[in-house]
Design goal:
Layout: E1 2-6, H1 21-24, E2 26-30, H2 32-35, H3 46-51, H4 53-58, E3 63-66, E4 70-71, E5 83-87, H5 94-106, E6 110-115, H6 125-131, E7 143-144, E8 148-149, E9 155-156, E10 170-173, E11 178-181, H7 196-212, E12 216-219, H8 261-279, E13 284-287, H9 293-298, E14 310-311, H10 315-319, H11 326-339, E15 347-349, H12 358-362, H13 364-376, E16 380-384, H14 404-407, H15 414-417, H16 455-460, H17 465-478, H18 480-484, E17 486-491, E18 496-502, E19 508-515, E20 521-523, E21 534-540, E22 551-553, E23 557-559, E24 564-570
Parallel strand pairs: 2-3, 2-16, 3-6, 6-12, 12-13, 13-14, 15-16
Antiparallel strand pairs: 1-17, 4-5, 7-11, 8-9, 10-11, 17-18, 18-19, 19-24, 20-23, 21-22, 21-24
Length: about 575
């Protein structure tokens, strides 16, 4: 047996009263279009979210994080913002937003907003004025002269950069006789952060929403904020899985992870901290960064200047596979903690609106196991819309595909790139339209399994993902070991991994045993005799043979295939 212990220095002595709200909470990402339609147009909205606020309380959520609800032409479903200070009519009004703030406050919920700093919509007033070279907006975006003109007189793009969504990252504007950069959709021109006026505009956006009642922000796509000013071509990856016009065909060494971007993030943290002092309530700043672990850790700060309270930890999204064994899972977890800066707070994310659902990636059994891992490993847990039900991906035909990342890939390959399958409406009940809308249609098809996989059914079932999820969030709130306990990880067998969240005797410690294999096993989870022989079953996979609070033997545990058991025990010493 291989054992590795990771000590969270300075945490085991802390009580939960000394932690900030965001450290003991579970954050819940609401994808507003798909959470609840407060009307009948088939698109989720703010009134729908208000209607279901008690659901967050019921499942133990502390922070409600909204994907963008700002004014937008919806070319990228809200991530193309045409006015950073207005609510899009699709989602409601500013009065609805104010009511949402009050509703959250009344329930002890914190409200987190998406902040999209890399780009605006091409329908934003700044871009319209920039196209016309109207000062001071002339250089609000990245404008570049053509490299030349081809034989037909058409302008040639300045380099080979490719959009994340596929195709050239440059769009020609006849009016201005220049190209503009768009690292995503052509309707999302990149803002120019080398212009200090742009930075101050975005600082003001942060101030505006904090004054309106937001409790913090999740910053979107921040590795793309800066580019190499010389605009050199990026080298090819020579990856046969990607065509020449697809983002994966290039190494993005000049358009991503540039050193200058971190100071921008640290500056945004300054704004949040200043407003926290003014408003007198604790605020939080989270960062989304798909990058390597070295770059991820830079978002915490530079040692003298704080950055994000935490950047999202995508280790389980990026590295956990169906073929991962126990040693591989231990390595994934330990890699994160071995790179974590001293005193930094961890977090775990297993899904979001850009990733296939965990049940789609791993199957329903290990999907729930992944959710258990995300909730009980040290740090803050982040839940995506529907994970509390272990919702599954929905097959979306080419005709129904609306995600620009899928649409731009074309009918033959859209399924490789579309994010629609994980964005389908929340399944509230077995009623028509899954209880999502009173209308007769929805913006994306509802999964046909809603008649059996829905919240109402899971509430009354003897066992369900919903009931397991509630037990997990209760543990995060009430068991000090889950909040601050020392982490010890164990490889018990090729496919059996376990970890303990240990505190001294007198308070319950927690042991999680995971079967990454595809067969049921009986395992000795106590080979070193450092645990009591008897523990209590707290929760776990639906296939587990134990009942809640049942006494179980730590030396002979029956663990289902692809499953997990969560036990509580009192430390021997």
């Amino acid at each position: 047996m291989k054992i590795t212990a990771v000590l969270l220095l300075g945490l085991t002595a802390l009580g939960s009263a000394q932690l900030e709200w965001w450290q003991t909470s579970t954050f819940y990402q609401v994808y507003p279009r798909s959470f609840k339609d407060g009307g009948f147009d088939g698109i989720g909205d703010i009134p729908g979210i208000i209607e279901k606020l008690d659901h967050f309380v019921d499942i133990g959520i502390g922070g409600v994080w909204l994907s963008p609800v700002f004014k937008s032409p919806m070319k990228d479903f809200g991530y193309d913002v045409s006015n950073f200070r207005e609510i899009d009519p699709i989602f409601g009004t500013m009065a609805d937003f104010d009511a949402l703030v009050v509703g959250c406050r009344n329930r002890g919920l914190k409200l987190i907003l998406d902040f999209v700093p890399n780009h605006s919509s091409d329908e934003h007033d700044w871009f319209i004025r920039s196209k016309a070279r109207e000062d001071p907006y002339t250089d609000y975006y990245t404008w570049v002269d053509p490299a030349g003109y081809n034989a037909t007189g058409a302008p040639i793009a300045p380099n080979n950069w490719i959009s994340v969504f596929g195709g050239p990252a440059w769009e020609w504007v006849e009016e201005r006789q220049q190209f503009y950069l768009h690292q995503f959709h052509a309707g999302q021109p990149d803002l120019n952060y080398r212009n200090p006026l742009v930075l101050e505009e975005m600082n003001d956006v942060l101030r505006f929403w904090l004054d309106k009642g937001a409790d913090g922000f999740r910053l979107d796509a921040v590795p793309h904020l800066m580019e190499e000013p010389g605009l050199p071509d990026e080298p090819p990856t020579n990856d046969p899985n990607y065509g020449p016009d697809q983002w994966g065909s290039l190494e993005h060494i000049y358009t991503k992870d540039q050193p200058e971007l971190y100071d921008i993030i640290y500056g945004f943290r300054d704004i949040v901290d200043q407003k926290q002092g003014e408003l007198g309530r604790p605020l939080v700043m989270l960062v989304e960064a798909y990058t390597n672990i070295t770059n991820t850790m830079k978002y915490y700060g530079n040692g003298t200047h704080p950055g994000a309270h935490f950047p999202f930890n995508f280790q389980l999204i990026d590295n956990l596979k169906n073929e991962t064994d126990a040693a591989g899972l231990q390595s994934i977890i330990n890699t994160w903690f071995s790179n974590l800066p001293s005193g930094a707070w961890s977090n775990w994310v297993v899904g979001n609106h850009d990733q296939p659902r965990v049940a789609g990636r791993f199957g329903t059994q290990f999907g729930l196991t992944s959710i258990i891992l995300g909730q009980l490993l040290p740090g803050t847990a982040v839940t995506y819309n529907g994970e509390e039900l272990n919702m599954e991906n929905t097959w979306i035909s080419w005709a129904d595909t609306v995600d620009p990342q899928g649409c731009q890939a074309g009918p033959d390959e859209y399924w490789r790139f579309s994010r629609d399958p994980e964005r389908t409406p929340f399944q509230w009940s077995a009623e028509a339209m899954a209880g999502f809308t009173t209308g007769s249609t929805t913006w994306l098809p509802i999964n046909e399994n809603y008649v059996t996989l829905n919240l109402e059914a899971q509430k009354v079932a003897a066992k369900s993902p919903y009931k397991v999820y509630k037990r997990l969030t209760e543990a995060r709130k009430n068991i000090i070991a889950v909040q601050t306990g020392e982490l010890r990880t164990y490889v018990l067998d090729t496919h059996i991994f376990s970890f303990a969240r240990a505190v001294p005797a007198g308070n319950p410690s927690v042991l999680v045993v995971v079967n990454l294999g595809f067969e049921d096993q009986v395992v000795n989870a106590n080979p070193n005799n450092d645990l009591p022989v008897i523990a209590n079953f707290y929760t776990g996979s639906l296939e587990a043979v134990y009942a809640e609070n049942e006494e179980v033997s730590t030396v002979s545990l029956a663990i289902p295939a692809r499953g997990a058991l969560v036990l509580t025990y009192d430390a021997l010493v």
